[in-house]
UniProtKB/TrEMBL annotation:
Residues 562-887 form the Peptidase M1 alanyl aminopeptidase C-terminal domain. Residues 45-196 form the Aminopeptidase N-like N-terminal domain. Aminopeptidase N is involved in the degradation of intracellular peptides generated by protein breakdown during normal growth as well as in response to nutrient starvation. It comes from Candidatus Venteria ishoeyi. This is Aminopeptidase N.
C-alpha cells in the first residue's frame, strides 16, 4: 500500500466519466541508460468541450515512480507552485488554454523494475508492458483506454549493447549519433490508447518472413529473440501466417501496417501482449523445437500467436472505453482464437480442452471470494481482473451470440461492429447492440450475462407420451451460487440438444411451432421455467443435452448410469460422448469418496468399467479424443462438487479407480502401448500427435500397476521411453510417470534431464513443474528443497510459477497436507514475491481462495496464513485486494 498505510480504494464502473482533456498526439524521446532512463514527452492536448468547456477542471495526469525534471506548457516552464505531484497524480493548478502542448521530462529506473510493469529489463534488454496501467510508470499521461492518440517515438541508446531499437508502427529514421549511441525513430499512423504502446531495445536476432494480404499488400513479419534462440522460431512464424490468413477468410479482416513484429522475452508476467505492430511475448509462447517443446506447447504457441494477432482488430482497431469493458476485447478474442485452433486442429478436442478449463478454473472462481460478472462492477487493482471469468467465460458469452445467430448472422454482427466502431473506444453494450441490430434481434436480456456473476444451474426433466408420440422437456434455471441469489434474474440460455433412439441413432424430430424435423435443435431458454415439446418421436428417446457445451451452465438431471453409459458409447456428438463419460466417472468417483469417508469396502462400478472398456476398444475414435475419454476427472474438478472438500478421500478414490482400471486392463494397456510405438522419426502431423497422446495415456495407466517382486513394468517402460525419446512429448510423458515413484529410476532420469537441459530455461521449468506436480507423499519436502535450488528464482515469473503455482494449484492433495506446511510455505513465497512483483504474487495467493470450503482444521490453518499476509507492512494493492476479499 505504498508508503503510508492507507486502505486502497475501489474504482466503480458506475462512476465512469469521459476525460476532461484529450491527447491527440504524443511524441516520445527515450534516452536509455544503464543507471537511469530519460523520457521526454510532448503531448498535444485539447480540452474536452463536452464536459470541460470553460476549463474549470484542472488537468490531472497519471504517473508513478517518476522523477520529474521539467514541465512546460507551450514552451514555458511551469513554475513549481503551479503544479503538484503525489504518489499517483500530477495536477496542474492553473487554467490551461483550449489547446496546448505539454512537455515533460522525467527520469525512470528500468534496471530496478522487478514488477515487469512499465519499462524494465529482461536478460539485459529493455522492454515494456503497459497494459493495463503501466504507461504511467514511463511518463506523465492520461493513462486510460478512451484517450487515443497518434504516437511517435525516438529511441536513443548505446549502439553496441542495444543494436536493435523497436517501437510501434513504421521505422522512419535511423542514424548514428557519433558518441557510441544511435537513434531510431518510429511513427504509428493509427490512433491508440497508451496500453498498446511498446518499446524494445537490445541485442536480438530476427527470423523474418512475409505475408501477402488478400488485397495484395506485402507485410514484413519479424520474430525477434535472443540470438541463441533463433533456431526455435519457425513454428511461431508459421502460426502468424496461418492467423493472418484465417482472419481474412473467416472474418474478412486484413492486417493494416506494413510490418508486424513479435519479440520474445524471458521475464514476462503473462502469456503475451498485443501492442500495435509490436507484440511482446513470453518466450514460452514463441520458442519451440521437437526436442524442447511438447505437442501441447506447439498448440499453445499457435493459439497465443493467433490470440495476439486477432487483437489487432478486436482490441486495437476497436478498443475498450474503460477497463470494466475488458471482456469486450478479451472474451471476443479468446472466442476467435478458440475457433482458429479448432480449424487448425480438431474441433472436438479443442472444445473439450476449453470446457475443462472453464469447469475447473472458472466455476471455481464463481464459488469463491473473487466471483465477478464478466463485466465487473468494481476493482481495486485492475491487474487482478485478467481472470478466467473475463477471458474464458467471456468467450462463452460470445459463443452464445454465435449459437443463437449462426455463423452468417454472427458475421453480420461483427461486420456492423467494425463499421460502427473502427478507431473508437467502446463498451460491451455497443457490441451487443451491433449484434442485435445487424440481425434484427432484441438482445436486451443478454445483458444479464454481463451483470450477474455466478454459474447457472439448469435442471432438465424429460416426459415421454407414447400415445401422442411426443416428448416434452421441462427446463428450469437458477443461480447456483447461494450468495448471489438476491435480485437474480433468468439468463438467456441456448440449449443445443439431440434425441437418440434405441440403437443410439440420431432421431429426426420436430419442435413445436417449427415445420422441419431435424436431428439437432437449439432451445432458447429465457425464462425461469420453460417447456419444449417434440413431435413424431416414436419411442422413448435418450436425451443428449447441451451439446458442445452450448452455454456455461451446470446441468442438473436425474439420469441413471445406464443412460450415461449409453451416451458415452453412442452419442454422435463427440463432445457429449466425452461429457457423458466424465459425468459417469464423476458420479462413480464421488460415490467412492463417500465410501472412503464411511470406511466402507471399495469396488469399482461394473457399468463404468464396461463403458470404459468400450472406449478402449473403439476403433473409430482418434487417439487424442480417446485419450481424453480415458482420462478421469481430476481432484480439483471433483472437489467443486463437495460442500466440504475432503481432498484426501477424493485422492484415494481416484487412485483406487486408476489402479483398478490399470490392473483390470493390464494386458490391453500393454498391447496398446506397444502397438503405438513409433516406427518412424519424429513428426508433428496430426496422426503422430494423436498416437503420442494415446500412448502417453496407456503409459500413465501402467504407472498405476502394483510393484511385483521389485519389478514394475510401467517404470521399466517409462525408463526405456525416456532414454529413447527423440522429442519432448515422449520424454515428458515418461518422466511424469517416473517422478511418482521415488527410487533409482526416478533419480537417474531427473538428473539426466537436468544435466541435459540446465541451460535451456523453458525446459528447466518443466523439470521444476514435473517435480512440483508429482504424486507421492514426499513431494512437500521436495518442493521446499527445490525452492532453495540454485536454479530457482523469484525474479523470473516462469520459473517461480513452475514450482510455486504448480504445487499450490495443480497438486491439491499435497498442497493441502494436513500439517499446514504447504500453506506456510505458500504464504512465505507470496510475501517474498510481493516485494518484487505484485502481479505474480497476487496470482499465486489465490490458491487460498477456497479456504472456507475445507474442514475446520485446514480452514483455521489457511485463515491464519491469510491474516499473516494481510498484516504484513507494505503489502501491494494487488495482494491486498485478493486477500481482503478472501477473508471477507
Ligand atoms: N492483453 C494481453 C492478452 O490477453 C494480456 C496481458 C499481457 C496482460 N500482459 C499483461 C494483462 C500484463 C495485464 C498485465 O493477450
Ligand atoms: Zn488478449
Amino acid at each position: 500500500m505504498k508508503d503510508q498505510e492507507k486502505t486502497p480504494h475501489s474504482i466503480y464502473r458506475k462512476d465512469y466519466q469521459a476525460p476532461y482533456y484529450w491527447i491527440d498526439a504524443v511524441d516520445l524521446t527515450f534516452e536509455l541508460g544503464e543507471d537511469a532512463t530519460r523520457v521526454r514527452a510532448r503531448l498535444q492536448m485539447r480540452r474536452n468541450l463536452e464536459n470541460n468547456r470553460s476549463g474549470g477542471h484542472n488537468l490531472v495526469l497519471h504517473g508513478e515512480q517518476l522523477k520529474t525534471l521539467s514541465l512546460k506548457v507551450n514552451d514555458n516552464a511551469l513554475a513549481a507552485d503551479i503544479w503538484q505531484a503525489d504518489e499517483e497524480n500530477l495536477t496542474v493548478l492553473t487554467q490551461l488554454p483550449e489547446q496546448f502542448v505539454l512537455e515533460s521530462e522525467v527520469e525512470i529506473y528500468p534496471q530496478n523494475n522487478t514488477s515487469l510493469d512499465g519499462l524494465y529489463q529482461s536478460s539485459g534488454n529493455f522492454c515494456t508492458q503497459c497494459e493495463a496501467e503501466g504507461f504511467r510508470r514511463i511518463t506523465w499521461f492520461l493513462d486510460r483506454p478512451d484517450v487515443m492518440a497518434r504516437y511517435s517515438s525516438t529511441i536513443i541508446a548505446d549502439q553496441k549493447k542495444y543494436p536493435v531499437l523497436l517501437s510501434n508502427g513504421n521505422r522512419c529514421e535511423q542514424r548514428d549519433l557519433g558518441d557510441g549511441r544511435h537513434l531510431v525513430r518510429w511513427e504509428d499512423p493509427f490512433l491508440k490508447p497508451s496500453y498498446l504502446f511498446a518499446l524494445v531495445a537490445g541485442n536480438l536476432a530476427c527470423l523474418d518472413g512475409e505475408f501477402i494480404t488478400r488485397s495484395g499488400r506485402k507485410v514484413r513479419l519479424e520474430i525477434w529473440v535472443e540470438p541463441q534462440n533463433i533456431e526455435q522460431c519457425e513454428h511461431a512464424l508459421r502460426s502468424l501466417q496461418q492467423s493472418m490468413k484465417w482472419d481474412e477468410e473467416r472474418f474478412g479482416l486484413e492486417y493494416d501496417l506494413d510490418i508486424y513484429m513479435i519479440v520474445a522475452v524471458s521475464d514476462f508476467n503473462m502469456g503475451a501482449m498485443e501492442n500495435k505492430g509490436l507484440n511482446v511475448f513470453n518466450t514460452k509462447y514463441v520458442l519451440s523445437s521437437p526436442e524442447t517443446a511438447t505437442d501441447k506447447d506447439y498448440e499453445d504457441i499457435q493459439g497465443v500467436i493467433g490470440h495476439e494477432y486477432f487483437h489487432n482488430w478486436t482490441g486495437n482497431r476497436v478498443t475498450c472505453r474503460d477497463w470494466f469493458q475488458l471482456t469486450l476485447k478479451e472474451g471476443l478474442t479468446v472466442f476467435r482464437d478458440e475457433q482458429f485452433s479448432a480449424d487448425m486442429g480438431s474441433a472436438a478436442v479443442k472444445r473439450i480442452e476449453d470446457v475443462k478449463i472453464l469447469r475447473t478454473a472458472q466455476f471455481d472462481e464463481d464459488r469463491g471470494p473473487m466471483a465477478h460478472p464478466i463485466r465487473p462492477d468494481s476493482y481495486i487493482e485492475m491487474n487482478n481482473f485478467y481472470t478466467v471469468t473475463v477471458y474464458n467465460k467471456g468467450a462463452e458469452i460470445i459463443r452464445l451470440y454465435h449459437t443463437l445467430l449462426g455463423e452468417a448472422g454472427f458475421r453480420k454482427g461483427m461486420d456492423l461492429y467494425f463499421q460502427r466502431f473502427d478507431g473508437q473506444a467502446v463498451t460491451c453494450d455497443d457490441f451487443r447492440m451491433a449484434m442485435a441490430d445487424a440481425n434484427d434481434e432484441d438482445f436486451t436480456q443478454l445483458e444479464r450475462w454481463y451483470d450477474q456473476a455466478g454459474t447457472p444451474l439448469l435442471h432438465i426433466d424429460m416426459e415421454y407420451d407414447a400415445e401422442a408420440k411426443s416428448c416434452t422437456l421441462h427446463l428450469q434455471q437458477s443461480q447456483s451460487t447461494p450468495d448471489l441469489v438476491k435480485n437474480w434474474q433468468p439468463w438467456v440460455i441456448p440449449v443445443r440438444i439431440g434425441l437418440l433412439g434405441e440403437q443410439g441413432e440420431d432421431l429426426l424430430c420436430r419442435l413445436d411451432d417449427t415445420p422441419d424435423a431435424k436431428t439437432e435443435h437449439v432451445l432458447k431458454v429465457t425464462q425461469e421455467k420453460q417447456s419444449f415439446r417434440f413431435h413424431e418421436v416414436n419411442a422413448r428417446p435418450v436425451l443428449s443435452p447441451l451439446r458442445r457445451f452450448s452455454a456455461p451452465v451446470k446441468l442438473d438431471m436425474q439420469r441413471d448410469r445406464e443412460e450415461m453409459a449409453f451416451l458415452m458409447a453412442h452419442d454422435s456428438d463427440h463432445f457429449n460422448r466425452w461429457d457423458a463419460g466424465q459425468t459417469l466417472a464423476q458420479d462413480v468417483l464421488l460415490d467412492l469418496t463417500a465410501d472412503i469417508q464411511a470406511r466402507r469396502e471399495l469396488s469399482l462400478d461394473s457399468l463404468f468399467v464396461s463403458g470404459f472398456e468400450k472406449i478402449l476398444h473403439d476403433t473409430h475414435l482418434d487417439g487424442a479424443i480417446k485419450a481424453l475419454m480415458l482420462t478421469l476427472p481430476n481432484e480439483h474438478l471433483l472437489s467443486l462438487q463437495m460442500q466440504e472438500i475432503d481432498m484426501d478421500a477424493l485422492h484415494t478414490a481416484r487412485e483406487f479407480a486408476l489402479s483398478t482400471l490399470a490392473q483390470h486392463f493390464k494386458q490391453q494397456w500393454l498391447d496398446l502401448y506397444h502397438s503405438l510405438r513409433s516406427t518412424t522419426p519424429y513428426s508433428n502431423d496430426k496422426n503422430a500427435i494423436n498416437r503420442r497422446r494415446l500412448q502417453a495415456c496407456a503409459l500413465e495407466f501402467l504407472g498405476y500397476l502394483p510393484h511385483t517382486d521389485h519389478q514394475h513394468i510401467g517404470i521399466q517402460l517409462a525408463e526405456e521411453q525416456f532414454q529413447a525419446a527423440d522429442n519432448m512429448s515422449d520424454a515428458e510423458a515418461a518422466l511424469k510417470l517416473l517422478v511418482n515413484h521415488p527410487g533409482p529410476a526416478r533419480d537417474k532420469a531427473l538428473s539426466d534431464f537436468y544435466k541435459r537441459w540446465k541451460h535451456e530455461p523453458l525446459v528447466l521449468d518443466k523439470w521444476f513443474t514435473l517435480q512440483a506436480s508429482a504424486n507421492h507423499p514426499g513431494v512437500v519436502d521436495e518442493v521446499l528443497a527445490l525452492a532453495q535450488h540454485p536454479d530457482f528464482s523469484m525474479k523470473n515469473p516462469n520459473r517461480f510459477r513452475s514450482l510455486i503455482n504448480i504445487f499450490s494449484a495443480k497438486n491439491p492433495t499435497y498442497f493441502h497436507a494436513k500439517d499446514g506446511r504447504g500453506y506456510q510455505f505458500l504464504a512465505e513465497q507470496v510475501l517474498a514475491m510481493d516485494a518484487l512483483n505484485p502481479q505474480t504474487a497476487a496470482r499465486v495467493v489465490s490458491a487460498f481462495n477456497q479456504w472456507k470450503h475445507y474442514d475446520v482444521a485446514r480452514r483455521a490453518l489457511m485463515q491464519a496464513q491469510l491474516k499473516r499476509i494481510i498484516a504484513s507492512p507494505g503489502l501491494s494493492k494487488d495482494v491486498y485486494e485478493i486477500v481482503s476479499r478472501s477473508l471477507g
